[in-house]
Design a protein that fits this description.
Blueprint (H helix, E strand, L loop, with lengths): L23 E7 L6 E7 L13 E5 L1 H10 L2 H54 L3 H12 L5 H7 L2 H14 L9 H27 L8 H18 L4 E3 L5 E3 L2 H10 L2 H8 L2 H12 L5 H15 L5 H16 L4 H33 L7 H4 L9 H16 L12 H32 L1 H20 L3 H15 L6 H7 L2 H11 L1 H6 L1 H4 L3 H8 L3 E5 L4 E3 L7 E7 L2 E5 L4 E5 L4 E2 L14 E4 L3 E7 H10 L2 H15 L1 H5 L7 H21 L1
Antiparallel strand pairs: 1-2, 1-3, 4-5, 6-13, 7-12, 8-11, 8-13, 9-10, 9-12
Helix pairs in contact: 6-12, 6-13, 7-9, 10-11, 13-15, 13-16, 15-16, 17-18, 25-27
């Protein structure tokens, strides 16, 4: 390459001298012909020039050189070459970017390929060996308290349920929450198995043959299940009853509390003492006589009676379910308790029936027993026949209606009958007491009404009131409370504002729909007005409003019919459901009633006093003008429309009242 030189520089110029600020222009040459072709690029750095004509060589020139070249070249050619040069640079940059993207894509494909291989091997491994971590997460999730309607009722909010879930995680691994889905399903199967055991075990012990090997699978399954239940109880949280109900989740506390309470009973009722005794005795008594072997087998059956202690577990689990479902199904739970009492009576009757046959069987059916007299001990008698006669005899004893087939003849029958009669009497008393308590608790309002009515009757008798007045008072209580008594004011006061307003609006929804006084008013004003209404009941022919008295209330008719009478103007008119009267008393002070209102039937009214009305108007001042307009229109137009034939004097009353209302409006405007 030929040497480069600076164009326009002086020979003696020092290298350290500052160089003038000259725009830098880059020239590139192409020799497609004898005439050199230039492309120009301007830069701000030092400018150097090269004179060779080889293609694609960069020539760096200063401003004077560029000016000279520009003067000797076609401007359009320079512009086209410049654009071509820029396009080449852009194409090169795009190519570099494309190469970088291709390189990166190849790396990603390589990585994805390696992951696919790893996933394929993992899938094959999972096919042979399931994911233990996923299985564990599913099991531990079922052991935690779920987010459902029942848990929200128990803990009050989603935040409290989440905090309980976090507390369970901190307690340790494999801790089961007592309200978890796992415990619910486990207890469901346990209750079913307990029910089957409670029914079948007495039958197997009492009526089955001495060789009960056919029931060994059932006993093995039951014992294994209940032993597993004991192990699970050591890892299940315990609910502590009290005002602040708490769930103990600490493993040490759970273990200590379970060992001190139900562990002993659960272990004794679950451990197969009879099977162990049979196995040990069978290995050492091969040469024993048949009579002694039979006695040993019967002793093993006596040990099997310890399994009946599982009844305590059944009662305990049923109580836990009652406490859980009491939050949501209180009414159904009351019937469930009665059903439980009936089932308890049937269980006791079942146990007594098995006892009737089991005691003579253990004594080898002595003489003067009802089993031998009935020949039920013979081998040709079926188990169903023995059980039926036994249950019939025990039921007769428990209900104290007889002694069954035969009265007790021997001492054995006497004691068995005595036990049946005592257990039946206690069970019957327990059933009557609990059933009466449940029925009374299910209708507390009716019981309160009866107690109140008895006080009223004693008061009327003490005061020696006339019979006609007593009849009217009794009639009033019957129609006012309708057999149920509530402290409605206290109940509504205990509710929050939103619930109280919703209850009041529901109770008065028919009234609001029927009365234009409420339909044409603001909803917030209507809600405030409804909260001030008082429910009143009037008997037929009872005076509600007396003519000439000062008006302090207006009335809304919810149900019934009233008659408006005026002795001065000799008019009569009837109003029924949805109508109202006495509204002028709310807008005009010291206004005398211009007519009497008498209940034609039993009337259920809502009254609104002047004081309550004015209290509401303080919060809603714009409603006063609207109400005055509605009342004035009612006075002028309403009575004429409702007047009966021949009552032409009713217009005089309306005009007089309307004039009083106009005077009141004028005075109010002046104030």
């Amino acid at each position: 390459m030929p040497p480069k030189r600076k164009v326009g520089s002086k020979p003696n110029e020092s290298k350290n001298d500052p160089k003038p600020e000259v725009p830098k222009i880059f020239l590139a040459t192409e020799s497609s012909s004898d005439v050199p072709q230039f492309s120009i690029q301007v830069d701000d750095h030092d400018v150097e020039a090269s004179t060779n004509n080889q293609p694609n060589n960069m020539v760096i020139a200063s401003e004077p050189t560029v000016s000279y070249l520009a003067m000797n070249m076609d401007p359009g050619l320079v512009r086209r070459k410049s654009q071509q040069f820029e396009a080449n640079i852009k194409a090169e940059e795009e190519e570099q970017v494309r190469e970088a993207l291709d390189k990166e894509r190849k790396q990603v494909e390589k990585l994805v390929s390696s992951r696919s291989v790893a996933q394929g091997s993992l899938s094959s491994a999972m096919h042979l060996h399931p994911d233990k971590s996923s299985f564990r997460r599913g099991v531990t999730g079922s052991m935690s308290i779920p987010m459902n309607k029942m848990s929200l009722k128990l803990y009050g909010s989603e935040k409290a349920v989440i905090e309980e879930q976090e507390r369970l995680k901190k307690a340790g691994s494999w801790i089961i929450h007592p309200y978890s889905n796992f415990r619910f399903i486990w207890d469901s199967f346990t209750l079913v198995l307990l029910l089957v055991n409670i029914i079948l075990i007495p039958v197997i012990i009492s009526f089955w043959k001495d060789d009960d090997s056919a029931w060994l699978p059932f006993k093995a399954v039951s014992d294994t299940w209940f032993l597993t239940d004991i192990i699970i109880n050591f890892r299940t949280g315990i609910v502590i009853d009290g005002p602040d109900s708490e769930v103990v989740l600490d493993p040490k506390q759970i273990r200590m509390m379970y060992l001190k309470t139900w562990f002993t009973i659960d272990l004794v009722s679950t451990f197969p003492f009879d099977l162990v005794f049979t196995i040990i005795d069978g290995a050492s008594s091969m040469a024993e006589t048949g009579l002694k072997a039979l006695s040993l087998l019967r002793f093993a059956k006596i040990l099997a009676l310890l399994r009946l202690l599982r009844l305590s577990r059944f009662i305990r689990y049923m109580k836990q379910w009652e406490e859980i479902f009491n939050f949501q199904y209180e009414m159904a739970l009351a019937f469930a308790r009665i059903f439980n009492l009936i089932m308890l009576m049937l269980f006791i009757c079942h146990f007594n029936g098995c006892l009737q046959y089991m005691v003579p069987m253990f004594l080898d059916f002595p003489e003067k027993t009802w089993v031998r007299d009935r020949n039920l001990h013979l081998s040709n008698v079926t188990i169903w026949e023995r059980y039926s006669w036994s249950v019939f005899k025990s039921t007769s004893h428990m209900l104290c209606i007889g002694y069954g087939l035969f009265p007790p003849q021997g001492l054995v029958d006497v004691w068995v009958t005595y036990v049946s009669m005592c257990s039946g009497a206690m069970c019957f008393a327990l059933f009557i007491g609990n059933a009466t308590s449940l029925i009374q608790s299910m209708d507390a309002s009716k019981r309160a009404y009866k107690e109140k009515y008895m006080q009223v009757k004693e008061y009327m008798q003490f005061r020696k009131l006339p019979s006609g007045l007593r009849h009217r008072i009794s009639d009033y209580y019957e129609n006012r409370f309708q057999g149920k008594m509530f402290d409605e004011e206290r109940i509504l006061t205990e509710l929050n504002h939103n619930l109280r307003e919703e209850v009041i609006q529901y109770n008065c929804k028919d009234l609001v729909d029927q009365v234009p006084f409420f339909n044409e008013a603001d909803p917030s004003f209507v809600a405030a007005m409804l909260s001030k209404l008082n429910f009143e009941v009037f008997l037929n022919d009872e005076v509600i409003v007396k003519e000439g008295t000062e008006g302090r209330k207006m009335y809304f008719i919810n149900r019934g019919t009233v008659t408006i009478k005026s002795a001065q103007h000799k008019i009569e008119q009837s109003l029924s459901d949805g109508c109202y009267f006495g509204e002028i008393a709310l807008l005009q002070q010291n206004l005398r009633r211009v007519a009497s209102v008498i209940a034609e039937t039993y009337c259920y009214l809502y009254s609104l006093s002047v004081d309550d009305f004015n209290e509401v108007l303080k919060e809603f001042p714009r409603q006063r003008a609207k109400l005055q307009h509605v009342a004035q229109a009612r006075l002028k137009d309403g009575p004429r429309e409702r007047s009966q034939p021949g009552s032409s004097n009713l217009s005089e009353i309306t005009e007089e009242s309307s004039g009083m209302l106009d005077d009141y409006n004028k005075s109010a405007k002046k104030k």
